[in-house]
Give the backbone structure.
Amino acid sequence: MSVGRDQLLNLLEMTLEPLVLVASLWAVALLREGRLAPQHVLLALVVFSLTFPSEARLGYPRGRAIVNILTGWLALAGLLLAFGYLSGYQHYFHRETLITWC
């Protein structure tokens, strides 16, 4: 299996979105709460698992890529909200942290 520029670029693109979501969660938690608690690490693991590998959108037109990203993020937010509400897991987080991250 050869490792070319296209394969590396696709790998970067597939991992970038999940890593940005995890990094933004951790940054918001550190800024809002001053610490990174175990529940943040667990939520980051769930978010990364749900979003990796993300879809490679380099070949998409700009409008289609934006719509695709926004609908994916809204679907993920809805799924996490439903899971948090039904399991009661959202009570382990500060409300402001979740709102800011969303």
Residues 5-33 form the longest helix (29 residues).
